[in-house]
């Protein structure tokens, strides 16, 4: 039994797919299948049920899984202990972000970290908040900048770095264009242009509407605030935007802070509350936590 076989087994279990596990491990899919079949031959029992559209654990596989995870965690812990004692900073870290947040000067922070620790490889990935939070909990991402609603995601620690009001933005000819502010109730019945579910700003909107008994009518969704602004500028609805994104289009749109209740969006640095982190990951988290709040 080899550690590589256990690593492949855990990856296929978590991804419920040989193909996705192979992509995650950066190896060929036939190699993953061959190693797991060899592990099954050594144990004398099938660990995975391959008969359905997704791969599932057999009863034996479910019994073996915690031991496989424990073995991999023990090896990782041993490596971390050696790195701690030798003061060696190397390896690979992954930072996730919902957007390339210019006000935080992420490129400058990453450049300074790379100068101090040139042997650490850094990957930057951009996803929505729900996907990033899942990646943090699974250990695929070391730290991330998330958009938060009322409560931080379970299993994560967070530090708020940006807090700003949420605005409604409309084209100059829209019937709401003359208002200096707008209430949540006044948005009822109007077509909204919003980020999709899984994003923090959408969660802020939906939680506030649920508390106020308002049913939002989201007519258009887009993954980037600039796209929302452009859709609103063409008269397709009321864009729901963070203040910084709204003010970038002040010449094209009429902006109204949402009041009664006041909606506020937060960007937070997040990292896994439990589980081993490499010295490199801890160093990058410490560097990111030192960023001044905006």
From TrEMBL:
Q: Where is the HTH lysR-type domain?
A: 1-58
Key word DNA-binding present: yes
- Record's GO cellular component terms: cytosol
* InterPro entries in UniProt: HTH-type_LysR_regulators, LysR_HTH_N, LysR_subst-bd, WH-like_DNA-bd_sf, WH_DNA-bd_sf
The domain of life is Bacteria
Tell me which Pfam families the record gives: HTH_1, LysR_substrate
Example of a GO MF term = DNA-binding transcription factor activity
Which UniProt keywords are given for this protein, alphabetically ordered?
Answer: DNA-binding, Transcription, Transcription regulation
State the family named in the UniProt similarity comment for this chain.
Belongs to the LysR transcriptional regulatory family.
- What name does UniProt use for this protein? LysR family transcriptional regulator
């Amino acid at each position: 039994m080899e550690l590589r076989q256990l690593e492949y087994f855990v990856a296929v279990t978590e991804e419920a797919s040989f193909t996705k596990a192979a992509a995650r491990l950066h190896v060929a899919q036939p190699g993953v299948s061959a190693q797991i079949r060899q592990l099954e031959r050594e144990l004398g029992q099938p660990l995975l049920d391959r008969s359905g559209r997704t791969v599932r654990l057999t009863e034996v596989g479910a019994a073996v899984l915690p031991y496989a995870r424990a073995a991999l965690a023990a090896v990782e812990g041993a490596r971390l202990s050696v790195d701690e004692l030798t003061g060696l900073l190397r390896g690979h870290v992954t930072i996730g972000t919902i957007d390339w947040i210019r006000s935080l000067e992420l490129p400058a922070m990453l450049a300074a970290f790379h100068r101090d620790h040139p042997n650490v490889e850094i990957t930057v990935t951009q996803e929505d908040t729900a996907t990033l939070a899942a990646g943090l909990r699974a250990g695929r991402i070391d730290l991330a900048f998330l958009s938060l609603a009322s409560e931080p995601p379970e299993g994560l620690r967070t530090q708020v770095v940006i807090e700003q009001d949420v605005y409604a933005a409309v084209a100059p000819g829209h019937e709401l264009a003359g208002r200096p502010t707008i209430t949540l109730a006044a948005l009822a019945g109007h077509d909204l242009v919003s980020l999709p579910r899984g994003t923090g700003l959408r969660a802020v909107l939906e939680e506030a509407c649920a508390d106020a008994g308002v049913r939002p009518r989201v007519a258009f969704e887009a993954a980037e605030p600039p796209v929302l602004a452009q859709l609103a500028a063409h008269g397709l609805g009321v864009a729901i935007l963070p203040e910084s994104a709204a003010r970038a289009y002040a010449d094209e749109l009429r902006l109204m802070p949402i009041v009664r209740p006041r909606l506020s969006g937060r960007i937070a640095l997040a990292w896994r509350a439990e589980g081993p982190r490499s010295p490199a990951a801890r160093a990058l988290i410490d560097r990111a936590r030192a960023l001044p709040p905006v």
